[in-house]
Amino acid sequence: MLDIKKIREDFPILKREVNGKPLVYLDNAATSQTPQQVIDAIVDYYQNYNANIHRGVHTLSQEATDKYEQARIKIQKHFNAAKSYEIIYTSGTTHSINLVANGFSALIKEGDEVLVSAMEHHSNIVPWQMLCERTGAVLKVIPMNEEGELRIDVYDELLGDKTKLVFCNHISNALGTINPIEEIIEKAHEVGAAVLIDGAQAAPHLVADVQALDVDFYTCSAHKICGPTGVGMLYGKEEWLNKLPPYQGGGEMIAEVTFEKTTYADLPHKFEAGTPNICGGIAFGAALDYMNAIGFEEIAKYEHELLAYATQELLKIDGLKIYGTAENKTSVISFNIEGVHPYDMGSILDKLGIAVRTGHHCAQPIMDFFKIPGTVRASFAFYNTREEVDVLIAGVLKAKSMLL
Ligand code: PMP
C-alpha cells in the first residue's frame, strides 16, 4: 500500500496555499507536480556539472554527457526499447509527433490514407493534417461512441490497402479512456500500416512495453510524469527511424558537412540537432527513478480507488454529467453541471484553492461530439487523497449553489 502522507512530503508545492486555502491540485493531466528528488537533480546539474555535451574533452562536459546518456538508458529500460538509440530526446509529445509527421512527407504519397482517432489531442491531429496538405494523403477518422470508446468495428472497415499510418492516443486526456492499442496496432500491421501511439497521458499511470506492443512509434512528455517541462521522448523502431529523414538541421546531427554535401549522424543524433535540454533529460531520468521506486502497479491501483470514489460522489450531485464513462479508464473525470459554464465552475473552485482545468482540453472534436463548449476536468495523481476528493465535492456543491 502507498504511504500517501510520506509521498506528499516529497512535493514541496503541495504545502502551499492558494487564495488562503490549502492547495488541492487536480490538474495532473495537464502537468504533474515535481518531487524534491527531481528538483535536486536539476539543482545538482546547474550547481555542479553544467556544460555542453558530446563535444567536450573537459571533465564537466564528460560528466554531463554521461548523465544525459545514462538517462536515455533509463528511458529505454523503462519502455523496454531494444536499443538506447531508438529513444530520441525531444521537447515533448508535440515535438515527437511533428518529427514523425514531417518525416513521413518523404514516405507517403497522394491518395494514401492516414487514420486518426476521434479522441485525439490537437497535437495528434494538426501535424497529420499538415502532412496530408503537403502530400495529398487523405485523413480519415476512427469515430467513438457515447461512452467515449473507439468504434473498433468502424476501424476495421476503414483499414485497407491504402492505409499507411494510424495515430491514436493510449489514454485520452479529455475523457480518460484507455484505448485498446494492442488491437489497434495488430490490425494496422495486418494491412502494412505503421502506428504512432501518443503516450502523453498513459505514461503517468502505466508502463508501456514498446516491444511487447510491437508499436512503431511511442511518445511522451516528462512533465506529466513528475519531470520538468520542455523535454520528452520519441521511441521509434530502428528500421523506421532509419527510413525517416531528419527533422531539423544543425549541429550534433551531422557526420560530415561541406558546402557541397552533408551526411547525417547515426541514431539517435540524426534527430537531435542543436544543444538539447541537457538538464531536462537528466531530470526526466530522475523522475522515472522516482516513479518506479513507488511502483506503477501500486500507483494504478490507488488512482483507481480515487477515481471510483470521486465518480461515485460526483454522480450524487443533481444535474452533473460525466463525459467519458468507458469501463477501462484512468483517473480523469470530465464533467459539467446543467446550466453552469465550466469556466465559472473552474473560477470558483480556484477561489477555494482547487486547481482543475476547464475548456476543450485541446480536444475540440470531442467537445463537438458531445455538443458542449467544454468541461470541467479533475485529474488525479498518486499524491492526491480521498480528503481532497471531499474538498472537490464540497467546492462543486458550493459553486453550483452560487451559480444556479
Ligand atoms: N497528447 C496528449 C494526449 C496530451 O494530453 C498532451 C498534453 N496535454 C499532449 C499530447 C501534448 O503534450 P505536450 O504539450 O507536452 O507536447
From TrEMBL:
Its cofactor is pyridoxal 5'-phosphate. Its EC number is 2.8.1.7. Keywords: Lyase, Pyridoxal phosphate, Transferase. The keyword Transferase applies. The keyword Transferase applies. Residues 24-392 form the Aminotransferase class V domain. It catalyses: (sulfur carrier)-H + L-cysteine = (sulfur carrier)-SH + L-alanine. SUPFAM superfamilies: PLP-dependent transferases. GO terms for biological process: cysteine metabolic process. InterPro entries: Aminotrans_V_dom (IPR000192), Aminotrans_V_PyrdxlP_BS (IPR020578), Cys_dSase_SufS (IPR010970), PyrdxlP-dep_Trfase (IPR015424), PyrdxlP-dep_Trfase_major (IPR015421), PyrdxlP-dep_Trfase_small (IPR015422). GO terms for molecular function: cysteine desulfurase activity; lyase activity; pyridoxal phosphate binding. Belongs to the class-V pyridoxal-phosphate-dependent aminotransferase family. Csd subfamily. Catalyzes the removal of elemental sulfur and selenium atoms from L-cysteine, L-cystine, L-selenocysteine, and L-selenocystine to produce L-alanine. This is Cysteine desulfurase.
